[in-house]
């Protein structure tokens, strides 16, 4: 049986491009057997399983200037640029409620990718309940090195999944997803540059993590080659921005957040009929 999968790259606030793509998909009744999200792809992609159209752009624009959400103050007082308690517990439980019941009822499998700081290897974890522990897995996937504390959950010590596997196409194929759609947050011509020596030196407490960061650009760029080859052969459907997105990894401008989201919607609307044809094969 052909299993249809959705693969969501991260990129911090560039992920609002993916949020726009996903909202158009949901509005057109497009369903997948499973999805895997990395970093922002996990934080925003969980809304696909809970079927909450518009939630990602709504809470980001409403809280973009809230120091409890993301700020230097949060980094200095809590050790996390994106405040852990506010972003992953207070907000989804009380301020912009995450629909836990819908998440649990939807049979679509949903996975997140994290990086084990002690091994530098990816950890793939399926979320089923959206309870507080699973919210910590999403936080771990989106916790950028240096500006986030290491997340301790279920016996693992974790950070940003994008370090070890930014676009987990091969892994999704390895667990049986053969008919996949990848949403990227960089344009076609993008190639990742090596991490700065300063950044690597700041991770010296975790040498395996630093080593993974050192080689991240090589792994990422090789994955892009793999993706482009599969795309050329018609074995993978890819949605990506046509130009660099007008947004920083950390962004407080509501206008830029909205523009990035709108670009995602426009990209998906332009490819909607092609996507339907691909998924119907």
Summarize the structure.
Helices cover 46% and strands 15% of the residues.
Model description:
The protein is of the alpha/beta class and 281 residues long. The chain contains 12 helices and 8 strands. Strands 1, 2, 3, 4, 5, 6, 7 and 8 form an 8-stranded mixed β-sheet that branches. A hairpin with a 5-residue loop joins strand 3 (109-116) and strand 4 (122-127). The two termini are 12 Å apart.
Q: Unreliable segments (pLDDT under 50, ≥5 consecutive)?
A: none
How many E-type strands? 8
The first-to-last residue Cα distance is 12 Å
Largest sheet: 8 strands, mixed
With helices defined by DSSP (H or I, 4 residues minimum), what is the helix count?
A: 12
Q: What share of residues is helical?
A: 40-55%
Q: What is the string of helix and strand elements? A: EHEHHHHHEEHEEHEHHHEH
Please tell me how large the radius of gyration is.
Answer: 17 Å
